[in-house]
Amino acid sequence: GAVVSQHPSRVICKSGTSVKIECRSLDFQATTMFWYRQFPKQSLMLMATSNEGSKATYEQGVEKDKFLINHASLTLSTLTVTSAHPEDSSFYICSATGTGDVNTDTQYFGPGTRLTVL
Amino acid sequence: GIQVEQSPPDLILQEGANSTLRCNFSDSVNNLQWFHQNPWGQLINLFYIPSGTKQNGRLSATTVATERYSLLYISSSQTTDSGVYFCAGAYNQGGKLIFGQGTELSVKP
Lengths: 118, 109
Fold this sequence. Notes:
heterodimer, A: 118 residues, mainly beta, 7-stranded mixed β-sheet, B: 109 residues, 6-stranded mixed β-sheet, 0% helix, 57% strand
């Protein structure tokens, strides 16, 4: 149980385009989802927290107009990187906490999406 | 906010050796988790351990909440144990996690 998927696993795009990353909880209801970014050889940095049906809460320094987060259902959250630039190239990871046959206090992580902006 | 420090930053072991990884946190936490990030980037939950001791096979963890630290023990290490180990803490159960910088473990055959 507690499986979180992400799609795509890898994406390469041109500078100026927008990229959407999906995060799904496959076997539980995700009441809260989190989005992280990880640069090479660094730790995970939280970007935003989203609860189903409400606006995401962004961490300080994260541009909400650039990183659009939608948590429209209890199993799906999306992160859209708008007008991507090479400095947005990174490993994006989502996680979820939820209800069902899971530990409600534990975050379960997706496999990550590697974004490369040319 | 919470600050999480991990030590050592790097560790090289011979297969079969034991190791202890440490995580210190600056404030009281109600949520502490240990993860293993494999070479493909997947974070694997190891322990949810805000206090006490837990064991899972060759891995065990102990958190002493009053002294604000947690330890992860790896016994009889295997090459598949290689990767980065993170601890992360949160004020609230189910709340946002603050990650340490990780310990990069390399187990040599």
